[in-house]
Design brief:
Order of helices and strands: HHHHHHHHHHHHHHHHHHHHHHHHHHHHHH
Number of helices: 30
Largest sheet: none
Strand content: under 5%
Number of strands: 0
Distance between the termini: 138 Å
Shape: elongated
Length: 746
Amino acid sequence: MPEAAVWPEVERAERLARGAALKWASGVFCQPEHLERLSQYRKRESQRTASVHARLKSMVQSYLEGVGWGLEQLREARTELKEVSHTLKAAGLESDGNMDCVKSLDRLREVSINHRQLLAAVSNLPRLYSVQSMVLETERLVESRRLLEAHARLMDLEWWQDDILWQLHGAAGTPGSALSSEDQELVVKYFSGVGQLVDALAKELWAVVSSSLALARQNPTPFVSAVRIVEREEALDRALLAERGGSGGSSRPLPPGRPRCWRATFFQVLEEAVSARFRSVSYLHTRGPGLAGHLSALQHGIMTDLATVRHLLEHCVPTHYQLTAAYLRASHHCLHTHLAQVSSWDLESGEIFAVLNWVLHIYNSPDMMGHPELVTDMERSELGPLISSEGLEQLQSKYVQSVQPIFALVPKCLDTALDVGLTSGMLEENARVALMIGESLRDQTIQMGLYEMENLLNRFREALIEFGKEHCRDPRNTKNKFCLHYLLASISNCIILKWSAEVLQQQQASRSAGQFSRTPPNPLAALDRAVRRACRLVMDQLLLELQLFLPGLLTRPWLAQGDPTPKLCSILERHLELYGRVRPPCRRRLQEEAQWLMVVEYVRAVMQKKLVCRSGEERMQLAQQMLQDNQLFREVFHILEGSGSDSEVNPLTLLSALADFVRLKDPGMLTLEVSGLAAKYPDISDEHVSVLLDIRGDVSRDIRGAVMDLLEQSAPPLPAGYRPIFTEILVPPSTLAFCLPTAKCA
């Protein structure tokens, strides 16, 4: 059979090698000049092939040597196994010949067993006779709380019981044979008093541990004895478990009731004692103001007991007990359970504040768990939170809901300025109180207050709208004679609320809008809308009084006598005096609005064209009277001028500009005058200028056309921040039905 058929892998490997070689050669000898290095490549590959062959020969030689050594070891092992087999066969034959001798020893074994049983009975008779007396003596020791002596006697009794059981077990026969149930029941019944002694001693021990805090201040000796007994029992448990469960595989059973694990019971009893101390604190009068006193009593009791544990009981136990840490854990657990119960009550705001303040601040303060001497005894993370985060959130939500009735008083605050100041103080005070608990509660309280304030201001604005409608229906109603005072007081109240809202929002500045569960409150916008509406109503009230005398302006009687300007000034002075009682910044706002209103109404009277000049003398007289009125108005509004008002934006300057327009002697200069007027008041229209030209009474058609063309060409845009004045003044339509053909069109 050919070699390729036996080893197909060899053929496949050879093909792969040839393919790889051809690929390599085609890459190396791709150019004719590369063939010059063929001899170098051939020599290098020959050396590499020789090296591979040498390594293969060395590896095969090493493998063959190892196989030869293994075969030699197998031959030696086979020879040794044959020898062992012959030896075991000979031993089996010899053992079969000795069976008769072994049977003759059975009688001797029975005699030996009986002898051991009799020996055990004789040696234990003194102990058995003294068991009952020792039980009675141990009972007296337990009753008199001589615990160490009682425990020593109890250990002797238990050792006797265990030893007798083991002797009977060993005397039962061959190793592995069990003690009969009758014998075991007999021993247990005879030593039944021992089990009762164990229960009585344990009862006394746990009574001492339960009252350890009280005993430590009087006589800590019983507590020390109890701890020593617990440690003895713990050592016995460890020793018996090691003996019965050691590597020797002893089949000796554990004594009855072992292991007792009294150390674990010690800490369990200590925790129950702490819980009982908590229950001893009076729960009477814990509702209302009594809850804070109850928490204070808990704090005092815990710290007093901690001082006793640290300075007295800690020195009575081994260091590995870490008694202070154990008491801290027990106290923390009891507090956690108790405060969960308290939190489930229907608490008022003061009670919730007392609980939150105690949990978040007092409990972790240096006066309690934050005490420097307690920090090293236990890591705070091991204790966990006193109230879970969910419980804290629920308490904070209940607190916010409980203070909501306080904020519900806000709608009544607009009756008097005193009430609104008190209410604003209440809002800020509740925010400060909530901050004592934490920023989260402060933010929730502020948010709820701002929502209530925003709702109030929206309702207040709606009430103002209804008031304005009612006032328009019956403006002369005597019931409305104090409406101005009411409006001004409401504006002052809104300003107080604005200050309070700004303070609250500044306190809440760190809270992002994304943290609100709904749209963030915006009471300042609602305040601004309400104040604007109230100011509009105040101006309507002023206009209502001014309208009695406004028709007399720019008439012939006014030109001759100056009436009714002094009466208008008297009304303005009275209103400005009332505006002066309003809190800033609305005080100045009302004064400026009154000034603006007066100027607009004055210019509106001019535009009614009730007075048209017939000569230059009348134009001078009209301009002079307008300047006198302007001076009277400036004296009335001197407060605004004295407070830094810019004359360029003072609306009274418009009256001076109109007077200058009327008294201009040369009509040819009107184009320049109108250009300056349009530059200063870009909202003036050609209708307004046309009325002013009509009032002069001396403007020709050519000059009028030039002026109108100038206005049409200029028409500058309104600058930023400019408040239009002529836009609010409509020019009344002309009353002339037609013009005479022979007369000049004015």
